[in-house]
Amino acid sequence: EPEVTQTPSHQVTQMGQEVILRCVPISNHLYFYWYRQILGQKVEFLVSFYNNEISEKSEIFDDQFSVERPDGSNFTLKIRSTKLEDSAMYFCASSLEGPNQPQHFGDGTRLSIL
Amino acid sequence: GENVEQHPSTLSVQEGDSAVIKCTYSDSASNYFPWYKQELGKGPQLIIDIRSNVGEKKDQRIAVTLNKTAKHFSLHITETQPEDSAVYFCAASSNYQLIWGAGTKLIIKP
């Protein structure tokens, strides 16, 4: 069964540094998402992406965050200047159609900011 | 905006018994309600979903019920097995965003 893959599984970064998290969504899916899960807390929506542009974003997704689909397979989340509170699990997801359709998740990247 | 409350936070049941997890939502415009299972070190896995035009949906040992009037929906797992142990999340789709509950840690006792 096709799956969403995320790399790296764990990223350790110094505060203030830029970080890029990578995702390969399921190949025929059209909608892509990033979510965040701080340890022990609920999953939080960050952003959705369709047709090469952001379709929705949450209050968390401020100017420090950006997303990109640089080629036909990758979907990236960039955090420009990381803060301690950015430490979390970041999940990528994709769906064939819109957000009201089944979303398939990767296993996440654990981001640790020192 | 949408708010999703989930109870209980932890549920311990004997193997073979049933487990019920409940969620409430606030936005009456929400129309899609998925349930996810998350095992340790893994991403959330969709196990069942329901839309607002349906009151109940079943898939083998798993069922979900939706009460639109009361704005609550529930996950029912029958004949629980050790592999059902995980954290379960409910979610509601509002304004094209999935808003998640806080999760329920389900423990299956042998």
Key traits:
heterodimer, A: about 110 residues, mainly beta, 7-stranded mixed sheet, 4-stranded antiparallel sheet, about 50% strand, B: about 110 residues, 6-stranded mixed sheet, 5-stranded antiparallel sheet, 11 strands, about 0% helix
Word description of this protein:
The complex is a heterodimer of chains A (114) and B (110). By secondary structure, chain A is mainly beta. Chain A is 0% helix and 50% strand. Chain A is built from no helices and eleven strands. In chain A, the strands form two sheets. In chain A, strands 2, 4, 5, 6, 9, 10 and 11 form a seven-stranded mixed β-sheet that branches. Chain A has a four-stranded antiparallel β-sheet with strand order 1-3-8-7, with no helix packed on it. The mean pLDDT of chain A is 94. Chain B is mainly β and 110 residues long. Chain B is 0% helix and 59% strand. Chain B contains no helices and eleven strands. Chain B starts with a strand and ends with a strand. Chain A binds chain B through residues 4, 6, 33, 35, 41-45, 48, 55-56, 58, 91, 93, 98-108, and chain B through 31-32, 34, 36, 41-46, 49, 51, 89, 91, 93, 95-103.
Structure, briefly:
The complex is a heterodimer of chains A (114) and B (110). Chain A is mainly β and 114 residues long.
The helix content of chain B is: under 10%
Structural class of chain B: mainly beta
**Overall spatial form of chain A:** globular
Q: Poorly predicted ranges of chain B (pLDDT <50, ≥5 residues)?
A: none
Question: How many DSSP-defined strands of chain B?
Answer: 11
Sheet-strand content of chain A, in percent, reads: over 45%
**Strand and helix order of chain B:** EEEEEEEEEEE
Ends apart, CA distance between termini of chain B: 41 Å
Largest sheet of chain B: 6 strands, mixed
